[in-house]
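About this split. The held-out portion is used to measure sequence recovery: a designer receives only the structure tokens and must propose an amino acid at every position. Recovery is the fraction of positions where the proposal matches the reference. Here is one held-out target exactly as it appears in the evaluation file.
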């Protein structure tokens, strides 16, 4: 689904098309299907299935928190997919988290890789109010 959150004259939320939102247990993309040139959904980078979802939330605001990794550099989709998979493996196998800890990851190739997507709180902010 694609939404943009806006407020009407009375302060109520309106939705119009703009943002890609992945919802729990929803098939948002089929591998090989073209969605957007610079957006790489989980199915395309062959993400592991999450072990569960314990921090689903609804947040009307829009905000970005940046966090960098110290993995290998990547400048094309093949190498960046390898790096995204490394991050997911580290978070799931090393930290014991149920999935990759980030909502989205940005590769040095300029693409946005879907992590947890929207409406799933990132792992490092779990149980904190946004």
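Reference sequence for scoring:
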């Amino acid at each position: 689904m694609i939404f943009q959150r806006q407020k009407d004259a009375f302060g109520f939320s309106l939705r119009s098309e703009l943002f890609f939102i992945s919802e729990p247990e929803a098939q948002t993309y089929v591998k090989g299907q073209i969605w957007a040139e610079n957006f790489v959904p989980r199915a395309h980078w062959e993400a592991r299935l999450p072990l569960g979802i314990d921090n689903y939330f609804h947040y009307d605001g829009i905000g970005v928190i940046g966090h960098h990794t110290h993995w290998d550099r990547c400048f094309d989709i093949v190498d960046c997919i390898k790096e995204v998979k490394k991050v997911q493996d580290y978070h799931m196998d090393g930290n014991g988290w149920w999935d990759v800890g980030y909502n989205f990851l940005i590769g040095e190739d300029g693409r946005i890789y879907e992590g947890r997507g929207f409406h799933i709180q990132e792992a490092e902010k779990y149980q904190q109010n946004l």
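Annotator remark: The mean pLDDT is 72.
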